[in-house]
Design brief:
By secondary structure, this protein is an alpha+beta fold. The chain has helices spanning about 1-15, 70-80, 90-95, 115-120, 125-135, 140-155, 175-185, 190-195, 275-290, 295-300, 300-310, 405-455, 460-475; strands at about 40-45, 50-55, 85, 110, 200, 215, 235-240, 245-255, 260-265, 290-295, 320-335, 340-345, 355-365, 370-380. It is about 40% helix and about 20% strand. The strands form 4 sheets. A 5-stranded antiparallel beta sheet has the order 2-1-9-8-7, sandwiched between helices. A 5-stranded antiparallel beta sheet has the order 10-11-14-13-12. The radius of gyration is 33 Å and the shape is elongated.
Length: about 475
Amino acid sequence: MKKLIKKLAAAAAIFSLLGSTTAFGAPVWPDDSGVNLESEAGVVMDADSGAVLYGKNSREQYYPASITKIMTALLVLENCSMDEMVTFSYDAVYNVEAGSTNAGIDAGEQMTVRDCLYAMLLKSANEAANALAEHVSGSREAFAELMTQRAIELGCENTSFKNPSGLNDPDHYTSARDFALIVQEAWKNEGFREIEANLSYQLPPTANDPEGLTVRQEHKMMLEDWTQYYDPDVKGGKTGYTSLAGNTLATVAERDGRTLVVVILKGSKPDHYTTYTDTRQLLDYGFEDFINYVPAEQETDIAGLREALQTAGAAGITEQTELTVSGGSVTVPAGAAFSDAVRTISLDIPADAPEGTAAVLNYTYEERPVGTAYVLAQEPVMQPVEEESEPTPAAEPESETSAISLGALLPILIILAVAALIGLFIWYRSFLAKKEAQQRRERMQARRRRLEESGVSMEEYDRLMKERQEKLRRKSR
């Protein structure tokens, strides 16, 4: 019975390609009922497409605690070189909450930006965060304004920063979705990824540590000796805790060419380990139930794309305009085809779009944003056409008997003109043939994709087509 059902399904798919109106629905968004977070808020986002795959209270405001230092690191990396020297002021060292985490650096001491970043991200040293903020902006208050402005640029809607460390402040807050955008941007920075890849780092000697302090990664999912939580897919992240924020955790994981960002806010228990079990649930859901497509590999109907851009009113798009699709990724449920995502065209070009961008392709799935890509337009470089020059008459010899008269040249000119016309006609026929061949290849590629999506081989399709043509011939006799 099962074999019969499979055959009927395959037959239905084949006849849909032969002109049937049968349609098959795309897979629905994966069921998330199995995800039960103990923390108050959490989100999992695909880092390449920006698609939010799951969220719990993802737009509600919470205190971020020390995961704030990811934003601090991003701004430092964007505004400083690693070898710049940072001087620790008295205020940077001592204007922190009693008992908060530090690396034992005293006022007046100096470290490179690189050393400060390792102390801040691995040890969560608050004096390092303060010193870096003062180094970039002159004061922690000015740096906090820069943090909030950068968050707005990244699309954050529920975020306000008041200090570079994440220590308690009632006006220092974010949301899980907003902070995922911040982590996504930080992960694009090579310097940030390099720091996150290290599990330990040796700081230079200080007055309090003459031999230099070794700082170590505190994210338990990156530590093999924490077997209960260790995950080799986890490549970076940051822990956080304050009395107001509770436990917080930001995580980046990579598997099979995909990168996920998970942010957990307001962990449910004082021991903070539920932030790791919540993160594990979201990583399993995001990796197992979704797949990614690269638009540049899927948007092969350039002629159709050109027509869509012209219909949308894109300026300067002609039949001669060369179009390419660049960047971006699209995340859809596992088992879905790229064509199951709905594409819309936007002519509102963002400031950070690649040069030559004519439009932005926005993709949705069940009305959820699942990715973007850019359409780059370029006019073809026209090669100058060399005009045929008439043969230069030979210099008249001194003897009048060897001179060529105009009457003798006329037949030669006529022959050359006819030859040029014939050559032009042959070139034009060749051009049409090549164009038709290209269109045939594109149609064949489109047909092959549809067949692959339906689970039907090209040979089976050809066989059915021959059978159908034979039936039509029999009926016409």
